[in-house]
Amino acid sequence: MELNPLFLLIEDNLIDQLVTKQLLKKILSIEQVTIANNGKEGIQWLNNNNIRNKQPLIILLDIQMPIMNGFEFLKEFHKLNKKTKKRVQIYVLSSTLDSDEIRQIEENKYVTDFLNKPFPIEELKNKLLLYEKLL
C-alpha cells in the first residue's frame, strides 16, 4: 500500500494475534504490527505515539477482552484529540452473534467496519484499497 499505514492489533488471544500478524505480513506485506493485549494497552499506545506518528493508523479491535474490552476502548478513544482520531480507521474483529453487540458496533461512529472472525484478510485488503483510492 502506498500510504504505508501503521497497524495496531488490540487482541487478547495469542493464537489470533499470531495468525492475524502472519496474514497481514503475507497478504499485505505489512512488516510491523503493534500488538496490545487489551483496550487499556491500546489507549496507552495511542497516547504514547500520537505526536510523532502522522501516518494513517489501522486498528484491528477485538471486543471480548479482559481489563478493557472493545466497547470500553471505543469510549476512551472518543476522548482522544481530533487530530489523532482523524488518521485512524478501526475495524472490529469479532465472532459475536449477539444482535445488541453487532448493533453497537455498527452504530459507533469511530468504527470503519465490522469483520467476522476468523480474520477475513482479503476482505480487509479490498476495503483498504478502496479507502486509499478515496484519499
UniProtKB/TrEMBL annotation:
Domain of life: Bacteria
One of the Pfam families matching this protein, by short name: Response_reg
Listed GO biological process terms: phosphorelay signal transduction system
Coiled coil: none
Modified residues (4-aspartylphosphate): D62
Protein keywords: Phosphoprotein
Segments forming domain Response regulatory: 6-132
SMART domains, A to Z: REC (SM00448)
PANTHER family documented for this protein: TWO-COMPONENT RESPONSE REGULATOR, TWO-COMPONENT RESPONSE REGULATOR ARR22
Protein's UniProt name: Response regulator
Protein species of origin: Flavobacterium pectinovorum
